[in-house]
Amino acid sequence: MEIIICSSESQVGEVGAAKVAQIARKVGPAVVLGVATGGSPLATYRVLAERVRAGNLDLSQASAFALDEYVGLPIDHPQSYFDTIRRTVTEPLGLDPNRVHVPDGSLDRLESAGDRYEDLIRQAGGVDIQILGIGSNGHIGFNEPTSSLNSRTRHKTLTDGTRKDNARFFSSLDEVPTGCVTQGLGTIMDARHSVLVATGEAKARAIAAIVEGPIMAMWPGSILQMHPDITVVVDEPAASKLIQADYYKHVYADRPDWQKLELL
Ligand code: PGA
What CATH number belongs to 2-255? Predict the structure, then answer.
């Protein structure tokens, strides 16, 4: 794992975007992005959008796959991930909406939603770069603790903790859906490159567990330790429980030129 500790939340966005841009340029304009919702990646998307506007990054042929969707929210509900991705990713990054995919969270088609989504990802040739956030309980996507480490896209039930964490986006806790369709941990692990961004002290325990703890289903993000190309970008508060923080800083400061990121 490559761990980059940044001095501020905005630097996390800059470094996260620089990493995504570096890989996207290597892959080319038809890059397949994996995109997360939630607060964590917003700064990264803002910087990526700046890069696109400045002509520094070409995503004109790019496709995107969201990690997850709530069950039972109409797609035009402002908190559906379909609409959230349109607002925070598709429009700012100038992606073609026909090439942006979100799992189908409709109640009447739930049974086949996972397999249909897996087929779409396969047909696109797989995800080149997966952008990830992390829940305070260590979930990635909506793979809650005890999710199978090899799981594929499927229906899951949200924990009370996740519903409480996400209640800030709704007018009350009761409005937060109880179910979701999420890419599985096996699906997420198939992405060729991954960039996980996290900020704030509320994520410190999860970051320490998934980076330095044992690989275990109780901390689903810990499976990323098995990923061949994962970069974890965090601010100081999110890094505050990492035992080896000084080592990661030292590695980053001393990295060879060919590993250096081009910041805007
Ligand atoms: P957040 O959510 O980015 O809004 O903190 C992350 C997650 O729950 O995966």
Answer: 3.40.50.1360
49-101 pLDDT, tens per residue?
999 999 999 999 999 999 999 999 999 999 999 999 999 999 999 999 999 99
Q: How far is the CA of 208 from the centre of ligand 1 (A)?
A: 16
| Digit-coded pLDDT (tens) for 97-152 | 999 999 999 999 999 999 999 999 999 999 999 999 999 999 999 999 999 999 99
Q: Domain spans of the chain?
A: 2-255
pTM listed for this prediction: 0.97
What is the rounded distance in angstroms from the CA atom of residue 242 to the CA atom of residue 212? 7
**Is residue 65 within 8 Å of 59, Cβ to Cβ?**
no
- CB of 114 sitting under 6 A from ligand 1: no
Lateral strand order in the sheet of 230-235? 2-6, 230-235, 193-198, 129-132, 32-35, 63-66, 100-101
Under DSSP, the state recorded for 158 is P
User: How confident is the model over 159-163, as a mean pLDDT?
Assistant: 95
How far apart are the CA of 21 and the centre of ligand 1, in A? 22
